[in-house]
Amino acid sequence: MNPSDTLKAAAKVALGTLFLLLVGSAYFWKERMLFSDASFIAFRIINYGSLQMQVGRHGAFITQVFPWVASKAHLPLWLVLWLYSISFTIFYFLTGWLLYRMRQYPLTILLAFYLSLYVSDTYFWTNNEVHQGVAWMLLDFGLLHYLYSRYGHRAKRFLLYSLPLFAILTFIAIYTHPLVMITFLFLWLFWVLAKESFFVSKFSFLYLAIVALVCVLKYLESQNNWYDGGFVHNITHTTLRAVLQTFSGSLAMDFYKGALQNYWLLWLFFIVGLMGLYRQKKYRLLAYTILSCLGYFIIICLAFYPSKTFYIESEWMSLSILATAGFVYFVLPSMAANRVVLLLAVAFGIRLCYIGFASEKFTKRVQFLDHQVREMRQQRVPKKIVLNQHNTWDTSLLLTWGLPYETLLLSAMHQDQPTLTMSYLKQEKITEYEAATYTKGLVSDFGHVEGRLLNPYYFQMDTVRPYTIVTMEE
Fold first, then answer.
1. What is d(CA 115, CA 351) in angstroms, rounded to the nearest whole number?
2. Which of 7, 36, 206, 299 is the most exposed place for a label (fewest CB within 10 A)?
3. How far apart are CA 364 and CA 28, in angstroms?
4. Lowest-pLDDT range, 29-33, 134-138, 266-270, 435-439?
């Protein structure tokens, strides 16, 4: 039995899973694009004609290029959004394919594990950039492994080819999301303990210095970041008591429940991986894996609070790499190829079913939006604000701040004249923005966007009549 053949067979199954995730993104494009951040970013790309990287998430350019080019070419709006939906999974699939072509089979498998084992609702919330950061990271490591295997014996050529690529990709990966730092450093030390050739070579310290520099710069940048700063503060300004309380907090309780009901396959692979490390007397890797997962658990519980599934899943997803690295590198190669194919096909199939079941709430959400737009069209109400008195829609719609952009995009796809939009605001926001008398454009949680600033090819809002303000009873 050749371990490489087994891993190659496993990587083919992983690559097939990435392709199915791509197919799913093409089918569920409305569910993914008419949901909060995706609608907001898509609107800004289309409207302002430029990429819209938020809070320094530079690696997101790889997905935003799709709707940017499509809108510049004046393609139909539905096609712009469809391309944006598949852009994420195209990037992941191409990353997996490149890793496979470079014979970095374990990294292909880890990418598929990352995108499936701790995923259900978050598949439909596309714009957490940690996922793109992880893909950039795995591509970075894959190229490093590949180039060292080819040119490691020729130092100058190896440095010439790998050093610039590594520096660029490391910067992109870590700057795309600060959580990538944890996974990046975990894998680095994992390979050191596993005595992977490059990571115990004389070159490794130079490359590690690059990683350290980028991590320090990202940490300093995150401290002053309006979005990441609070999370960083929660971690760096903690106490021993707070750390101990993470194990009994409400987020931990949700985590334990999810481990039994939804993400049990991840922990099955985790346990089997630990058993494999023990049998092969890889005691340091065994301890390192356990401590790393424990440390990640504490960090997430310190930084975040209980939230809706689509959000908190995306923060836990990196555990799929930390917890399964031992399984991928030390258990799979010892198994027969046909058994590995069957095992992974069943495992990925189960996880795809979880994602499919999660689609129902997002499909209902699109149906709700379509109903609201259709009702406004029939009533000839071009702009509406629903008064948010008791957060009535927050449970069924998951998030409501994106409604102005979601309804605007949906109406524009129907080519309504004028383009319709609906907001859901509390009374204090209505008063602050003088929404009852505002006529010139769009009103959202973030203020006004004047109609004259909208891209006229896609959006033509009424700028004469004021908003119609209704209560839930109406």
1. 10
2. 206
3. 12
4. 435-439
